Amino acid sequence: MAYCDSPLDNLGASCAAIEKIAGVAARIYVGKVRDIDPEELTFGVDGSITAFELLTGKNLYTAESKIWKNAGRSSLVVNENGPNTFTHAFDFVAYAFDQADILAIQQLALADQLFIIAELNSGQLKAYGIAHKAGLTLNFQNFGLKASSNEETTGVVMSDDNTNKLTLEGSIPNLPQLFKPLTALATNLTDLDAMVAA
User: Fold this and answer.
1) Domain presence at residue 13
2) Is residue 20 part of a domain?
3) Domains of the chain: total
4) Cα distances (angstroms) measured from residue 197 to each of 28, 51, 57
5) Residue 88's pLDDT band (boundaries 50, 70, 90)?
6) Quick check: helix, strand or coil at residue 16?
7) How far apart are alpha carbons 30 and 65 in whole angstroms?
8) What are the C-alpha distances in Å from 76 to residues 12, 19, 61, 110, 196?
9) How many alpha carbons fall within 13 Å on the CB side of residue 47?
10) Cβ atoms of residues 50 and 43 within 8 Å
11) Residue 130's pLDDT band (boundaries 50, 70, 90)?
12) Whole-model pTM?
């Protein structure tokens, strides 16, 4: 029987890791996996995304909520056949007032093969839905996130919840990766903002 040897590395508990602030910023970047330029997407030895560009004419989109509302998460899926994978999930709370808001939520809920780049409250960026695993041959454009649920409520009294709670999920061979961690956050945000559709 063949045996696939998986590498290991030391895992420390630095003060930075232990004291890392949790949570996600109010605004996230959303794009379509197939719009990423495969020639300009590179990963470091540690798996982090080190370079990222979109194909000519393609754009990112932003979605804005409130602080302390959004959350990214992942969970291991043990597969009997093939490699184990991780479910990337992102919970986004959307607020709608007019029909344009409702339409934008609907479009996000119906889209497929998406990725999200989220600003963490720790001053980092993390990417959900972008596939990469060293030693594993794959086409990242065949992966991504799509909505698994959208719960909308009007509430009953004035102070009740009246939001759309949207969850995007996808099966990916890696954990969510840090996005260009060696580049200053302000520079990364400026670069991402330049890709956002007008």
Assistant:
1) no
2) no
3) 1
4) 14, 20, 10
5) very high
6) helix
7) 13
8) 21, 24, 28, 25, 32
9) 15
10) yes
11) very high
12) 0.91
The C-alpha atoms of residue 138 and residue 132 are separated, in whole angstroms, by: 8
Euclidean distance between CA atoms 174 and 72, whole angstroms:
14
Residue 23 in any domain: the answer is no
Check if the beta carbon of residue 50 is closer than 8 Å to that of residue 44.
yes
CB-CB contact of 106 with 10 (8 Å): no
92-104 pLDDT tens trace? 999 999 999 999 9
Question: Domain range holding 146?
Answer: 33-194
Beta strands in 49-103 (DSSP E): 49-51, 61-64, 71-77, 85-94
Q: 3 φ, ψ to 5°?
A: -130, 125
- 84: in domain: yes
Q: How far apart are CA 105 and CA 164, in angstroms?
A: 8
Q: In the predicted model, what is the mean pLDDT of residues 4-18?
A: 81
| Cβ neighbours, 10 Å, residue 149 | 11
Give the chain's radius of gyration (CA, Å).
18
pLDDT digits (tens, 9 = 90+) for 153-195: 888 998 888 899 999 999 999 999 999 999 999 999 999 999 9
What confidence score (pLDDT) does residue 127 get? 98
Residue of 129, 151, 125 lying closest to 140 (CA atoms): 129
d(CA 73, CA 8) in angstroms, rounded, equals: 23
